[in-house]
Amino acid sequence: MSKKIIVIDDSQTIREQVGAALRLAGFEIIEAVDGVDGAEVIERTRDAALVICDVNMPNRSGLELLEGLRRDDKLKGLPVLMLTTEGQPQLIERARKSGAKGWLVKPFRADLLLAAVKKLTAS
Amino acid sequence: MSADSNLTIIDRLVVAAARALFGAHGVTLGEPESSDRDTPTDHDVAASIGFTAPRVQGAILMTTRKDIVANAWPRELRHRDPSEREACDWAGELVNQLLGRVKNALLPFGLTLEQSTPTVVTGRHVHRAPASTNVARRYFFAVTTGSILVYFDAVLAEELVLSESGDASTQSAPEGGIELF
Question: What is the least distance, in Å, from the CA of A94 to any CA of chain B?
Fold first, then answer.
């Protein structure tokens, strides 16, 4: 069965770009458009293997979403990869301390993204 | 150090960011041309994103044609042309990524910008009205089939002097780079 990846980004193009890169490798993609929608999709999708999440989004940022996940006993083990234009060391450290598994600065290369996703979903 | 040196730094960072960004998406930008060149009449899309920091407020605006935006469409999706809505979404993402690069390049200068989400407008002959900010920079880039204009408009506090720190902790993570924890 395909592993499910939840892609949260307010850009439809980025969601489709990530989806195109990962579907070819056999992953199932579920999309969400911002941090609020992302939290709802994660709640509904209990067997997700990974979340790929933007940082700067309307309604709720990716870091706020991440921190919310870590306070939820049922979801705190779900791996999260941040995909963002942000390169600020303080934000990367905040994500790391909040349990994110990685940080990728846009624009991304599909092969690097795929390698990271395979590694993070290997277990 | 002066306002002029701030402008020199801003010009260098914005131009480098724009050229690197579009280059990464397969569109080559040359050096920016004379800033007093007439506003192109064929631009039909404008994407803007705001930013703020304690002594800085402003926005980056990009205008161009939708078919030029489509030329920068991600290669993973190039098996089809983007719809009008997708081209607009991508224009917004491009200006978001442009500001991201500028933000990251400003970190060593002690400036940490917070940003808005992008806004995209389409129409005919789109052009920016005269800016009232104390920094209003315009960069005209010719591309094979037309042009891209980037505006950097900001209010900078008079006492703000951009000065690069050698502190490695202020360096941004590289664009395209991935760090696994």
Answer: 12
First to last CA, chain A: 14
Shortest Cα–Cα distance, A61 to chain B (Å): 11
- CATH number of this structure's domain B3-158, picked from the four choices 3.40.1440.60, 3.30.70.1130, 3.40.50.1100, 3.40.1550.10: 3.40.1550.10
Longest dimension (CA), chain B: 51
Reported pTM: 0.92
Q: Do residues A108 and A75 lie in contact, with contact meaning Cβ atoms separated by under 8 Å?
A: no
> Which two structure tokens, joined as six digits, stand for B24?
């990464």
**Per residue in B143-154, pLDDT tens?**
999 999 999 999
For residue A109, what is the nearest residue in chain B, using CA coordinates?
B176
ipTM, 2 dp:
0.88
Q: Is pLDDT above 90 for A50?
A: yes
